[in-house]
Write a structure and sequence with these properties.
The chain is an alpha+beta fold. The protein folds into 2 domains: 4-79 and 233-348, Beta-lactamase, CATH 3.40.710; 87-193, no CATH class. 35% of the residues lie in helices and 19% in strands. It has helices at residues 11-16, 39-48, 87-100, 111-114, 116-121, 132-137, 149-154, 158-163, 179-183, 185-193, 197-206, 234-245, 258-264, 327-348, and strands spanning 4-5, 18-19, 22-23, 28-29, 55-62, 65-71, 81-82, 214-216, 230-232, 249-250, 253-254, 279-283, 288-292, 295-302, 306-311, 316-322. A hairpin with a 2-residue loop joins strand 2 (18-19) and strand 3 (22-23). Helix 2 (39-48) runs antiparallel to helix 14 (327-348), helix 3 (87-100) runs parallel beside helix 10 (185-193) and helix 3 (87-100) crosses helix 11 (197-206).
């Protein structure tokens, strides 16, 4: 069964937040045309999603109101969907909270300062002098093949494995995608905050915005993985984008520091990966940035096309869920999913 929410209904049904007997009590619900979006274009994009075998969900909010939602391939609104590397952007949010609370003093602290005991075990680690800023911005100058994530996740202990990776320089110097370095965020936050990623996320980020259910894959030592591993409802992934649009506020409550949101979404330089028709792709602090139909956008990006995209100038957020395809099919699926996201941005522009 394909669960659909298409918002072709009466005003009374909208006010009740019900479509085909389903409620969204954690979201205000509206029609796309009420938010100034072109309803026909939104419906066409939703329908086009039926032709993508790997797509599982496509949702849109405008000004904090849920205006479009559809599920595919037997998925439903309460299913927890893996977001793969979009997990990194959640970790960035948690770093911002640790800085706000003084648990981490500065982004310019080095790995040797943040993880002194671990560095004592691997004193010649290429990562020892890297700063937290370099890790978050992808400016470490070190490379790691993302296809080796399985080896990283299965390592015991993971921290020692991550610190022991050889120095593989990026050519030309600049942005590099490095799961091993991002994996260090988990022990850094655990040491600074006294709790693991799942506990921190639940207490400080998810609960304040009404995310009640999630799963987090753990390494062989039982610690949550920072590069990937989170699974949440697509509605909740959409909340994270909407939270960023509002400068870290959710329903009037300041959950993230506004300055951290701005810093996270400011590109630190160009990135070399480009999904679909996005132009001028850059990288902030574990958030991608770019231009889409003339709009400045930012997004969390998971393997296979899990996106949590925000277009702040339009007050528009889009979230997708998708399966993890084999590597030969990755580019095609990712671009196809992003093309649907782009159509939603265009429908609001």
């Amino acid at each position: 069964m394909i669960w659909r929410r298409d918002f072709v209904m009466s005003g009374a049904s909208l006010a009740a937040g019900r479509v085909f007997g389903v409620e969204a009590p954690d979201w205000d619900v509206g029609a796309p045309q009420a938010s100034g979006m072109r309803a026909g274009d939104v419906a066409d994009a939703l329908n086009a999603g039926e032709s993508l075998p790997g797509l599982r969900a496509l949702l849109v909010s405008h000004s904090g109101v849920l205006v479009a939602e559809r599920y595919y391939g037997g998925a439903g609104p309460d299913d927890l969907q893996p977001v793969n590397s979009a997990t990194k952007s959640v970790c960035s949010m948690l770093v911002g909270q640790a800085l706000r609370d003084g648990r981490i003093r500065s982004l310019d602290e080095t790995v040797s300062q943040l993880l002194p005991d671990a560095i004592d075990e691997v004193p010649d680690s290429p990562a020892r002098s890297l700063t937290l800023r370099q890790i978050l911005s992808g400016r470490s100058g070190l490379a790691f093949d993302p296809m080796h994530f399985g080896q990283l996740a299965g390592a015991k202990p993971l921290v020692r494995y991550a610190l022991s990776r050889p120095a593989i320089s990026v050519a030309p110097p600049g942005w590099s995608y490095n799961d091993a370095l991002v994996a260090l965020i988990a022990p850094i936050l655990a040491r600074a905050q006294g709790a693991d990623l799942a506990v921190l996320a639940s207490r400080d980020l998810f609960d304040p915005i009404g995310i009640k259910r999630f799963e987090w894959r753990r390494d062989r030592d039982g610690n949550p993985l920072a590069p990937a591993g989170l699974a949440i409802r697509p509605r909740d992934l959409l909340k994270l984008s909407a939270l960023m649009i509002e400068g870290g506020r959710w329903k009037g409550r300041q959950v993230l520091p506004e300055s951290w949101v701005a810093q996270s979404l400011t590109p630190q330089g160009p990135a070399t990966w480009r999904p679909g028709s996005v132009a001028d792709v850059g990288y902030g602090l574990l958030w991608f940035t770019g231009l889409l139909h003339g709009q400045h956008v930012a997004w969390a990006w998971g393997y296979g096309g899990q996106f949590a995209l925000l277009a702040p100038g339009l007050k528009l957020a889009v979230a997708t869920a998708a399966t993890s395809p084999p590597p030969p099919a990755l580019r095609q699926q990712t671009d196809a999913v992003m093309s649907l996201v782009a159509r939603m941005v265009q429908a609001a522009g």
